[in-house]
Design a protein that fits this description.
Blueprint (H helix, E strand, L loop, with lengths): L2 H11 L3 H18 L1 H11 L9 E2 L4 E2 H12 L19 H6 L4 H10 L5 H20 L8 H10 L16 E6 L2 E6 H10 L13
Antiparallel strand pairs: 1-2, 3-4
């Protein structure tokens, strides 16, 4: 059900829909791992995605301070994460959003990221963050666009850990998944790369790897 929205927001940001889907899948697997009983009783039977709350928001698990940084990077031409003038207004708040939040952008941002009826902004913020990371490494002459494990690792650990270099490592949050009696331990970036390169969702052309 989410495929059209994922594809649309990924295209707006200029990244692969498959890449955005990979980040989403791992965020959901991580949420499942930490809230297994809730997932089994509610989300799994209904086949719906789980919304995070408190520190990490929405289906993509974006922190409020990270969302603010994504917005700031769009308009700060001196930032290493600046995408160019074409992207500067992509996250501008509408008059209605500001009216509904009584002019408080923090409230408006929270509403955007936790909207369970329309997850467009969750996907767009995540896609823009991913694009900002990719562009910053391109500017430093260390492109990582084709290194899915590294890109998704940086999405997981945040802008503050994005330091372009010649030997980036795959890592991020540890996620332990069980299948029957067997247990498997992955990093966020490792699991995202495995999904990206798998044949999962192959029937959805826009979510297939480039």
């Amino acid at each position: 059900k989410e495929e059209p929205n994922i594809t649309s927001q990924a295209n707006k940001a200029g990244i692969s829909p498959r890449l955005l889907a990979s980040e989403l899948v791992v965020e959901q697997l991580r949420l499942f791992n930490s809230n297994r009983e809730i997932y089994k009783s509610i989300f799994a039977p209904l086949k719906v995605l789980g919304n995070q709350s408190q520190y990490s928001l929405g289906v993509m698990g974006i922190k409020m301070e990270t969302a603010k940084k994504i917005e700031e990077n769009l308009i700060d031409s001196k930032s290493q994460f600046y995408l160019g003038s074409d992207y500067e207004k992509i996250l501008d708040y509408s008059a209605k959003e500001l009216q509904d939040s009584e002019g408080n952008k923090d409230t408006a941002r929270f509403i955007r990221l936790t909207n369970e009826k329309d997850r467009a902004y969750s996907y767009l913020y995540a896609a823009l963050m991913t694009k900002q990371i990719q562009v910053s490494w391109q500017k430093a002459s260390f492109p990582i666009d084709d290194n899915i494990g590294v890109v998704t690792t940086l999405y997981n650990i945040g802008f503050q850990h994005s330091n372009p270099n010649a030997n980036p490592k795959v890592g991020g949050a540890r996620i332990n998944l069980s299948s029957g009696e067997k247990s498997y331990d992955y990093s966020f970036g490792e699991l995202a790369e495995l999904f990206y390169e798998s044949d999962e969702l192959v029937e959805m052309s826009s979510l297939w790897a480039d």
